[in-house]
Amino acid sequence: MTTPDPTSPVARLLRYANEVHALAGQSGRKDLAEVLAAYAGRWKDECTDIVVAGAQKRGKSRLINTLVGRPDLVPVDADVATNCFLSLRRGPQLAAVVHRNTDKGLTQTPITVESIPDYASMRGDIGKRRDVVSVDITLDTPVLDGLRLLDTPGVDSLTVGHRQVTVAMLQRADALLFTLSAQDQPVLRHELEFLAEAAERVRAIAFVLTKVEDSANWKSLMEENKARLRTFVTEAIAADPGRSVTLSPLLSAPWIPVSAKLAEAAEAKRREGRQERADALRARSGMDALERQLRAFAEGRESARGATVVAAALSVLNSLSTGAKDDVAVGSDDEGDLTARLAEVDADLAALTELTAKRRAGAVANTFLAREVGSIVAARLTEIRQPYENTIATLKNQAQIDKYMAELPESAQRSLEAAWSQIIYDTEVLARTTLDAFARDLGLDPVQLTVDRRAMPNLSAVQVRGDMAADAPVNVDLVRDVLPSASMGLSFGGLAAAALGPVGFLLVAPALGAAIFLGRRKMEQVQRSQAAIRTALRDQFALVTREMTLDLERMVTTWRVNVEQAADDSLAQRRKELETRRAELKSASARSAAERRKARESGQERIAKIAALTTRGHELRKELGAAVAALGAAPAAPEGAPGAVPPVPAGA
């Protein structure tokens, strides 16, 4: 890495971080010094890590392939495998290496480029992708000069592995490209929640709107996305003003519309020797603007990393301040200072005891979460089932019933699949609201919930039993069927006799009686068939309701147990720290006057240093934040960029 300008914010940051690190060591807080060292250690890495994230089918993988000029390199239309990510960096030749966790540790295995999907995608060989951590790909392309692109699992995959891998990647990211599609639905709630989580970890973010070539309304969709983001951020900050620092930058992040399809068409024209047409298509693809944004991220990685280091340093200083104030109280000439400090610790311990009791009460309340899940599932599935029952009541004959029964399983399956996402969302909102309140009451950060989605139950087993079958024999009950029909026949026969005379009765009455009998029998068959269909449908929906409820109850219980365990760990750690402080403060009275005076002077000196370093830290964070925000300034799009003129077909 080149030596920065000594007067630049980055150079001042390096000196600042060294001072905070030294102060932590001098204060006997080796643990805090190591934390800061870990954050600052990334300065040695001269490669800018850019995480590319987004939901499935948002054009993420094709975008990466187009950027590096290899259309078939990264699997398209198949999500990255659970617990795996793809790393693309510049190298002398095209090659791929699989990194796998084994009993002997992390192993590396070279593979062919063609076999990458087998190891790294959900459509690959389950045996080959087992225990794969990453697939590193090298290729010689100028786009990757000083850059490393990290392709992560889709953020809507909603499995434990996918979510954890993507979030883990953000810990090492210098920047984030978040993809959305111009040919798909607007940004969804779970995507916004992922972005909020990402903003806590990475400051440099850009949005990429893909697939603009065939979308006539991509501009309006982009504005809708911005509006949804703005609403989400505003509501989140209103609920917790402390999140303003991390969430507000999302509103100023750039939006870059691109078309991988047009960029690929441009390369095809270039190979044909049609340079002018290739240049026009390339300009309209938006890829040049995206590459300029990547260059900006690369050039500004020190600012992005610096902002992270400053935040860590300020946290370290806050912890050091407590110890320094204790030392001042220990060496005070006024014994009341030490007594007051001890009283503060005792008060904190008493408050912690109250929190522990509140934690137990909250845990009892949390047990009702699983029960509420059943109500959510039942309500949603009742909404789905009712239209089917209404349709069943309109069926008039066996032919309609047979046709309906042929279509029912697949139709019901689609309805359930459509409702599943909403049920998941309702359940997550319920759990998040309840568990966030539980965590907040205990002074913990908001919880992170990871949804584990199982396959949908299948309704293809719905069958019509008994007399619903078309070829079932008709069993006639003489009392129930024949006598009422004969009576009706005679009644109608009497009406006919009045009009036609005795001969008319003799000719018409038996025919009418038979016709009415058969018609009534068919109607009763339809009615019994309708009842059987409704019964079968309700039975199947009851089964699906039970299965869904059990799955979601297990999921919610896992969330609850994890949050409660985190609460227990946090409370135990806080109690340990407070008890250690109290023991040290009490032992201070046994020290000599000289030792206490030395502790006071040291504490006063550290407090002054901490105050000065804290002020400098806030100033640096402001400067670096502005520098990072400047990286997010949307590059000026060249004339002819997407949307400037009507879309061009890729084959033009």
Automatic annotation (TrEMBL):
Pfam families (UniProt xref): Dynamin_N
Keyword Disulfide bond set for record: no
Comp. bias intervals (Basic and acidic residues): 593-605
Stretches the record annotates as Disordered: 582-605, 633-652
Chain ranges passing through the membrane: 492-518
Keywords, comma-separated and alphabetical: Membrane, Transmembrane, Transmembrane helix
Name listed for the protein in its UniProt record: Dynamin N-terminal domain-containing protein
